[in-house]
Amino acid sequence: MALTKEDLQAIGQIMDNKLEPVNARLDKLEQINAKLDKLESINARLDKLEPKMDEGFKFLEDCINEAAKDNQLSIKRHEHEFHSA
Fold this sequence. Notes:
single chain, mainly alpha, 1 helix, 94% helix, rod-shaped
């Protein structure tokens, strides 16, 4: 028994219907992979920035410490001037 054109079209339609959920899952996986690729790219850029940020935070910490020392010296100088007067 030979299959007719209509039989082959019906089989093709059934196969398409069965494959639709699989294709939908594959599409979702491709979207997820694309997002993961973007995240990996962002992580790589952040890895490059991290040492620069560490240097910046160290600089700010040093500035704050210097300002605190200057304030302490100023307070001591004013206390000394106050008690000397």
